[in-house]
Amino acid sequence: MPIFTIIGRLSDGLTLTQSMASQSDPYRKEVQEYERQAKKLLMSSAHEEQKSPLYNQNSSQPAPYVTAEAGDQFCFHYTSANGVCFLTLTEKNYPRRLAYDYLDELRNEFLSVYRNQIASASRPYEFIRFDSFIQKTKKLYTDSRTERNLEKLNSDLRDVHSIMTKNINQIITRGENLQNVTEKSSRLGFEAQSYAKQAAHANRMRLFRQYAPGVGVFILVLILLYFFVIRGR
């Protein structure tokens, strides 16, 4: 079953909303640690997506589905559209097709309601009220053996070929490396600007030292001429 869900913005990894674990969830004790991994995964996906030549934050076409193994018991499943990542954690034996159907339902509803507000969101969990829809949808996918879910599994309506399976540690490490590269690039850019300002200041000071004595003498001559020639008449 979907254990918890995070929806985040890819441009900066901001968490827009997140499902809340209830007291009845059998894995609520493990959720906290996997939430931390999920947020790292979100940030890593944000950096990885933006480095991709196919990245387009305005595209409404879903990106390929990705399954990332998280230990022996669980898997993260996620996809993205319109610059938003939709991610859920399930047990490893939970059918992937149901996980992707679940994410599709969340994606369609979330974008239909908040599409025009995503870019302007300024604080974490700004759309936390969407959790009510997440919880309602989660209940429909809790048991993979219900008639509704078995029909989904037996149908041929879904193309499940665009799926990538990765290891979460590889994704997080790659994302952190990309983040480090971005930070180093930003730092080098800042240092270059600082160096350019320092060079311009040094050049001004050099010109000042070069021409200031001559200008000073010229002004002094003008003053002397004024007092001894013009005022002396």
Write up what this structure looks like.
This protein has about 230 residues and is of the alpha+beta class. The chain has one domain (about 1-185): Beta-Lactamase. The protein is built from five helices and six strands. It is rod-shaped. The relative contact order is 0.14.
Strand order of the largest sheet: 2-1-5-4-3-6
Strand residue percentage = 15-25%
Integer-rounded radius of gyration: 30 Å
Number of domains: 1
The termini sit apart by 105 Å
Mind telling me the CATH class? Alpha Beta
CATH topology category name = Beta-Lactamase
Number of helices: 5
Per DSSP E runs of 2 or more residues, the count of β-strands stands at 6
Output mean pLDDT: 75
Main location: endoplasmic reticulum
Pfam families: Longin, Synaptobrevin
GO biological process, one term: endoplasmic reticulum to Golgi vesicle-mediated transport
Family: Belongs to the synaptobrevin family.
Write the layout of secondary structure elements.
Layout: E1 2-9, E2 15-18, H1 28-51, E3 65-70, E4 74-81, E5 84-91, H2 96-114, H3 131-141, H4 147-154, E6 163-167, H5 168-230
Parallel strand pairs: 3-6
Antiparallel strand pairs: 1-2, 1-5, 3-4, 4-5
Features:
about 230 residues; alpha+beta; Beta-Lactamase; six-stranded mixed β-sheet; rod-shaped
Structure in a nutshell:
One of its GO terms (biological process) is retrograde vesicle-mediated transport, Golgi to endoplasmic reticulum. This protein has 233 residues and is an alpha+beta fold.
